[in-house]
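So, can you check?
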Amino acid sequence: MRDSLGNSERRLVLSNLFSGSIHELLHPPSGQIPFLDGLRTIAILLVVNAHLSARFSQTFGSNSFSRLPFVTNGWIGVDLFFILSGFFIGGQLWKEIQRTGTVAVGRFILRRGFRIWPLYFFTFLCVFVWSLAFGNGLAAKGFGWSDLIFATNYVNHGIVMGSWSLCTEEQFYIVVPLLLFYFASRTPSLRNYRRWLWVVLLSVPLLRAVIWICYTGHFFVHDPQLFASIYYASLTHCDGLIMGLIISNLWIAREHPKGKFASPWPLMIVATLLAAALYVIQKEIFDFTTLALLFGALAWLGLQHRLAIFNAKPFYWISRLSFGMYLNHEYMGPWLVQSLPPNLIALLHSPILANFLVFCLLTLMSAAVSLVTFCLVEHPFLQMRKVVLGH
């Protein structure tokens, strides 16, 4: 009887967990911006597609689909994530400064911790146990110590795939509120912050240029290895995060461009032309700057003109599950490709179709696993955050 009661209680707890989290997925909160959900959906699909197609090409050979620009350059989805992170986190900080005149740094970091840490460390634990059980070079990777302190983007000893970008964001979540806390009493106007943010945004490509010239001896030399090292470091790859802060500052301050740029379309055109010019001049140095300009203008466009297509619920669903998908898809992709029958392409009579179908399958599998982890890990801690910190 006691065991039966215990089983019933466990089933009730699980049922409540799932019903509450599913209800949240089915009912977007008030103030949700569908266009930004659409951008987050695009970002995760770009990243998943890039990783899956690269693995598919290694196994079955490249095809026209795997060579498409948005597939081979799917890594730009991370920069789109940076824009969105900068916007959402910046929005919280600017509102707090407007309301209180300061920033509660500890509260802010803890609030972000309830959102990021549970699933991140749950993923770390799963990978750690799996690697320990099957001897997948855990010691050679330092047992993932850099993941635990969010330093994988500088010290490559992580075991959580893709953790470098999460480390960049975590460093951002610490440094930015500390700086705003210091300057809040000295700079009450949001406009004044924006001026300095533009200076910082312009300084990042200058830093990359200095590093480039010091290491290669010439501004126009192309060096993929050097680009890779610049790619992972937060100091040299934070353009999108800063642009997100600028956009959120404008949005919260309600100071929209006037004159020729009252409509976001001219801004989009200018940003596109400027980005193209910078990319032609030196793509490695200005890659992240061009993406910050393009995605920043696109986000601003979406805030001004909300396209109806992004009101579709699947964009919100994938957006809410995107964190879990980002963490789990790289473990599922290789297994999925290796599990495919060797004659798959012959059966479908098209490597392009095969690649696309496998991408769709991985997306569905990743979303399904993310739904489970959202219900069992993410959502309970988000509810706990409400209890501990309030809304």
Q: What stands out?
A: Residues 188-305 form one domain. The mean pLDDT is 89. The chain has 15 helices and no strands.
